[in-house]
Amino acid sequence: MINAVPKLPVTLTRSEGIVGRVHQAADEDALAELAAASANFGFLLPLEPLLLLYGAGAEADAHAHPNRSLAQAQQFAAVLTTESTRLLGPESANGPVHRALTELRCSDESAPDGEAGPDDRGRAQRLVRHCFDLGVWYFRLRTGVRDALSFVPPAEWNDTPAGSRPRQVSVREPVTSLTTWVSLLDEYVPVLRQTFDQRTPAETATRTSLRARAALLEADWRVADLLAMAGWTVLNDSDAPHELPARGVAVRGTDRPDGAASPDYVLHVDGRPVGIVEVRARGGGLRAAMARTPEIGTSLTGSSERRMRYAYATDGIRVLFRNGDDPEPRPREVFTFHQPDTVALWLREAVTDPQAPTFQGRVRHRLPGLGDDGYAQDSLRPVQYDAVRAFEGSLRRGERRAMVQIAVGGGRAVTAVTAAHRLLRYARARRILFLVDRVDLEMQALATFAAYSGHGDDGRKFTELYPVGRLGPDAVPSHGVIVSTVQRLHNALSEGKPASGVRYRFDLPPESFDLVIADDCHRAASTRWRALFDYFDAPVLGLTATPNDQVLEVFQNNLVSSYTFEDAVADGRAVDVAVYRIDGLLTQPKQAAETLEEFGLDADWPLGQDRSVLSGQTLHAVLTAFKEGLPSMFPERESPGSGNVALPKTVVYAADDRHADEVVATVLEVFGQRPEFCQKVTSKGGSPHLRLLQFRNTVELRVIVVVDLLTGTDIAPVECLLFLRDVKSADRYFQMVAVGTRPVALAELRAVTPGASAKTQCLVVDPVNVSRHHAARLSTAPKRVRRQVACDAPGPAPIHDAEIMGRWQSFLRTGNSPDPELIAGTKVMTEMDVRSLRFWAETLAQPPHGLTAEQIWSAYERAGVTVSDPRRPRTPKGPVDLIALVRYEAGLEPRPRPYRDQVFDRLDAWIDSQERRGRSFDPDQLWWMETIADWVAADGHFDSASLVNVPFTLRGGTSGFLRAFGEQGGVRLLDELSKALA
After folding, report:
1. Which of 38, 137, 442, 914 meets the CB 3.0–4.6 Å disulfide criterion with 56?
2. What is the C-alpha to C-alpha distance for residues 76 and 81, in angstroms, rounded to an integer?
3. 387 close to 405: Cβ distance less than 8 angstroms
4. CA–CA dist 130, 626 (Å, integer)
């Protein structure tokens, strides 16, 4: 131990002789007595007596006089700041040491006079420890010695937390107490201060050498903080870590007597050395330091068989890590050190499976090839099969970033879920993070996981085998899939302060996930996404329809699989795009120009420019031209927008929320329609996903006006896109257009667009000439031969009812069925259930079955199986109606009835029961109840939040409902009605 300073032979007593001695120019014996009396600052005597005096004074007064201790600590910081500037120069005043000195000098909240409380003492004691750490830094800077210096709580600190290590410094009992020596030497301070102030700055050569040493010490200071932040107890070599109750201990190394290489830290888990840390100054070559860690690990254990498994090299900012248990151990950059509990888990896994002790090892040795486990290629689409196989190959090679391009309609969600399922099942992944960009996509992802049934799972759904949930405020679950929006995750890692960037979170550490899947990863080039990828120590799979140079750079140019928009059009997974320009007030269909301008990612032209946004009379003229041009846009249909042929489902892109309101009003004026014809769908409009549901499934709502992107939203019947604003970003424009490129079955199209013949293209109506930038991105020149029939071939031959019913029954026999509780009628349908049913119906619409709910229900109707109420008009059938057909095939229902009929029967029965009890309803109240029932019939469920949507807003929304039924009665009735209709 260095704390103990050799004693000089002194025979003084408290007398005038001693007092006289303290006035001598230099009293080495008295200072030596003080150094011996101090448990923690004696080692500073040979370097700077002032630091000894102030440090020992702060130590002596910390318990009884915290305010005096604070003053001494501030003086200690002031002297050390001046000394470090003298040695290193004023330009070196940065880094954690100088920040610590500044904080200590600014600690001016003195304890009040009088008796000190435990809080005052505790604060003073913490500052003494702070001074000790700074003194150690100064000692190592001056001497270059790495020997351990341990802080020893003085005996009078009787309120030291239980379990603290007892005093270990062995010195001869001083002639007098530490407090007395500090008091006696107080008059000597001016002399020492004068000598100190007369020192000249260090020579240039000395400064250069000390700066190099200071840089390494600064790095070590940061490293100690990083280790402590990750849960490691940082101790010195003499502190006997095996005797401490801590699971993880980082022991600071010392110079070895034999001169052999030694690490800066040795990591112990449960008393066993398992890893080493090499510390370098910034720019000191971390990879070179990492290269020598095997030699150091072997020298510590004495055997190559008992190697150190885990190695780190760091400068306190960048951290490199190598896991020696990986199949091909390679250094990789990580955010910070892994937690001791994580390392303990790795050690247990290595014992359980020595041949594949890590996730990467299990991917290489335990994950079978996609075809080797019996997963037939026809179980997935070719693009999905190829993408999963390519990504798994990338993982086996140890690549940390991989990107898959799958165009709209190619099935990105199923690809991601299949990859996650196989890694959980075969590679024993503990947790997988699924990142999306918006809440509605998060809900779609949850529904996809809930409806997915993997190969070899006996028909059990994904969520029956593995937990799937949203990222919440609590700790991350131990296993399964966590789904989150990038905004929520970034907020969790920035402590609610997005501008501060990503910070370490102990309950969500970088090793939380074995895999990160990022949907729509074309946004990964943004700082927010990239920071999240860099935070987690996990491979990242990116999925996108629109890769670009920036995102390719983020994913290290590792595009492992590509299925382009051209491929999707050739396969019939997407429809082609045609541009219809409106030049002035003249309408003329034109082909997209073959030019492409390069623009920044996700950036738009400034709003409010005449060339970017159409408003006022110009807007009215453009919408009039759009209406008059519909016959030439859809020549195969007679008078689209008339009473016989519906206007094609149209999405209008507005500039902002206020502009959207103007567009809605102008559309209704130009087309002479009621409010249900055109609606605004924005984040400020409330429950946008419910309005999108209405737009997708009803005839009445023909036009929606949006501001935000609709990527990932499946509205296959959309045939027309109208741009009333310019778009600078090619990627954003392509995503906007992709909303209309999904193909749709003829029966499903006609169910919402009566009179339609087929969806053959997506028509972009372009009065602002936005397509001039981006036409090349939409070029559909085929890259390969079409796999489907030629585009000029007639449509598919009609399917007979017997074949439809046979396909439907075959689909059910293969284990594809909804939640058993929904079939049994023992569960109230929730929004999540409706989403799962919709995804289930989308699976039914894919080959080899290729059926829609409308097709199946119509076949059962023509066969005389189903029964409809003649009092109610027939409406298109959706996924919820299929529940009755499932019950019929299971023998639970003799005559399946449409879901709408069932809901309105329940409404009639409930109203009858209320009237028998003497309760009556006026026409306004009946309108509210019937409209709620209609909402339930269309959407499958209802809650109070739906009252802010059309058609409820036509009568005042939530306020109108409460006016009709009363404040208390309305809440009670809504609860009763929701239960009665479910």
Report:
1. 38
2. 9
3. no
4. 74
Residues in the chain: 982
The CA–CA distances, whole Å, from 534 to 329, 380, 499, 503 equal: 20, 32, 17, 11
pLDDT class of 117 with cuts at 50, 70, 90: low
Record the tokens describing residue 368, joined without a space.
């079978």
CA distance 314 to 287: 9
**436 DSSP β-pair partners:** 485
User: Which of 597-601, 765-769, 804-808 comes out lowest in average pLDDT?
Assistant: 597-601
Mean pLDDT, rounded, for 819-844: 75
The CA-based angle 371-373-375, given to 5 degrees, is 55
User: 823 or 925, which is more confident?
Assistant: 925
Rounded CA-CA distance 476/467 in Å is 11
pLDDT at 592: 33
CB atoms within 10 A of CB 566: 18
3-state secondary structure of 746: helix
pLDDT for 118-134, tens place per residue?
677 888 888 888 899 88
Residue 748 zone, left/alpha/beta (φ > 0; ψ -120 to 50; rest): alpha
Query: How many angstroms separate the CA atoms of 729 and 551, rounded?
Result: 14
pLDDT of residue 466: 92
Indicate the SS3 state at residue 184: helix
pLDDT at 336: 95
What confidence tens digit (pLDDT) does each residue in 145-185 have?
A: 876 677 888 777 765 443 444 333 333 344 356 776 677 67
- For 621-660, the DSSP string reads HHHHHHHHHHHHHSTTSSSBTSSSBPPPEEEEE-SSHHHH
Confidence of residue 424 (pLDDT cuts 50, 70, 90): very high
CA 704/CA 781 separation, integer angstroms: 31
What distance in Å separates the CA atoms of residue 598 and residue 612, rounded to the nearest whole number?
A: 18
Burial of 252 (0-12, 13-18, 19+ CB in 10 A): buried
Q: How far is CA 343 from CA 65, 96, 310, 515, in A?
A: 44, 28, 9, 18
Instruction: Provide the pLDDT confidence category of residue 973 given band limits of 50, 70 and 90.
Output: confident
Three-class DSSP category at 219: helix
Is residue 577 within 8 A of residue 764, CB to CB? The reply is yes
CA dist 223 and 318 (Å) reads 10
Both tokens of 674, joined, read 């009621």
**Residues 654 and 724 sit within 8 Å (Cβ to Cβ):** yes
Q: State pTM to two decimals.
A: 0.69
Distance CA 796, CA 262 (A): 75
pLDDT of residue 589: 38
pLDDT in tens, 306-364: 568 999 999 989 999 999 999 999 999 999 999 999 999 999 999 999 999 999 999 99
Burial class of 71 by CB neighbour count within 10 A (0 to 12, 13 to 18, 19+): middle
Residue whose pair of structure tokens reads 């016959």 in the numeric block: 631
How far apart (Å, rounded) are the C-alpha atoms in residues 306 and 300?
9
Residue 317's closest CA among 269, 293, 284? 284
* Integer Cα distance of 648 and 641 in angstroms: 8
Q: How far apart are CA 888 and CA 876, in angstroms?
A: 19
Please name which of 528, 592, 547 lies closest in space to residue 781, comparing C-alpha atoms: 592
Closest by CA to 974, choosing from 954, 964, 904, is 964
Residue 900 · residue 867 · CB < 8 Å: no
Question: Which contacts of 827-831 are long-range, i.e. CB under 8 A and separated by 24 or more positions?
Answer: 828/941, 828/979, 828/982, 829/880, 829/940, 829/941, 829/982, 830/941, 831/443, 831/940, 831/941, 831/943
Q: Quick check: 96 and 221 in contact, CB under 8 A?
A: yes
